[in-house]
Amino acid sequence: MSSILTEPSLIVIVWCALVLALAGAVKGILGIGLPIISIPLLALVMPVPQAVALMPLPILFSNIWQSFHGGYFLKTLRRFWALLLGLIIGTVIGTKVLSTVHPHMLYVLVGVVVVIFSLTSYLQPQLRVAPHHERWLAPTAGLIGGLLGGLSTIFGPPLIIFLVALHLQKDEFVGTISTFYLIGVLPLILALGAFHMMGQRELVASSLATIPLLAGVGIGQILRTRIAQEGFRRVLLVMLTLLGCGLVVRTLLA
C-alpha cells in the first residue's frame, strides 16, 4: 500500500500540533468545529488528501464521549437511521472521488464549504423542517454530508443546518451531531484504506494527532464557563470566513 504522507519538517509538525490543539479547544468550548477548523488550516501546509488522512482518529476519539453521554446514541440510531445510511454511502463515494480529483478542486471545495458554513452560522436564518419533510430530507442531508466528509472530513455543514432546522435542544443536538460524526468516520477510515490512502504511516500519524487535539478539548472545556461563548463563536466565524475566502483566492491565483 502506497503512502500519501511526505516527510514533514519540524515547522509543519509544530503547526499541525497547534492547529489540532486549537480545533480541540473550539470543540471543547462549542461542542462542534473540529474538521471545519483543522482542515483549512492544515491545508495551508499540506495537500488536502494528506490532511484528510490525518483526521479520522482525532474525529473518532473526540466524538465517542459526546455521542454516548446523555443516552442519545441509540435514540439517534432509531430516529435518523436513514440519514446515517445516506451518510455512510456518501462517505464512501466522497472518499473514492478524493483519490482521483485534482488538488486545486479540493482547495476550492474546502474554501467554499467553510465560507457557506460560516455565513449560515453567523446569520442564523430561521429554518424549520416540518415533521412530514424530515423523512426525505434526512437521507438527503446524510448523503451530502457524507460526500463532503469523504472529500474533506468536513461532514458538518449540511448535518448541522438540518439539525438546527429541527430545533433540537442543546444537549440533544450535541449528542446527535457527535453520533453522526462517529458513524461517518468509521466508513471513512475503511474507505481510505480500501482506496490506498491510509496505510500504517497514516494510522500512526492520525493516532499521534489525537494527543494535541484531546489536550485542546480539555482546555476548551475549562474555558467554556469562563468566556462569552456567543462572542467567541462570532469572532471564530468571521475568521473562518476570511480563511475560506483566502483558500479560494489562493487557488484561483495559483
Structure description:
With 254 residues, this protein is an all-alpha fold. It has one domain. The chain contains twelve helices and no strands. Helix 5 packs across helix 10 (170-194) and helix 9 runs antiparallel to helix 10 (170-194). It is globular. The protein starts with 9 loop residues before the first helix and ends with a helix.
- Mean pLDDT across the residues is 88
- Number of helical segments? 12
Rounded Rg = 17 Å
Helical/strand content category: mainly alpha
Shape: globular
Strand content: under 5%
The helix fraction, in percent, is over 70%
What is the number of independent domains?
Answer: 1
Order of helices and strands: HHHHHHHHHHHH
Describe the main β-sheet briefly. Answer: none
Span of the ends, CA to CA: 31 Å
Q: Got a strand count? A: 0
Extract low-pLDDT stretches: none
What keyword list fits this structure?
single chain; 254 residues; mainly alpha; 12 helices; 0% strand
Q: Can you summarize this structure?
A:
With 254 residues, the protein is mainly α.
Task: Please outline the helices and strands.
Blueprint: H1 10-30, H2 34-42, H3 48-54, H4 56-68, H5 72-79, H6 81-98, H7 103-123, H8 131-152, H9 156-166, H10 170-194, H11 200-223, H12 229-253
Helix pairs in contact: 1-2, 1-11, 2-12, 4-10, 4-11, 5-10, 6-8, 6-10, 7-12, 8-9, 9-10
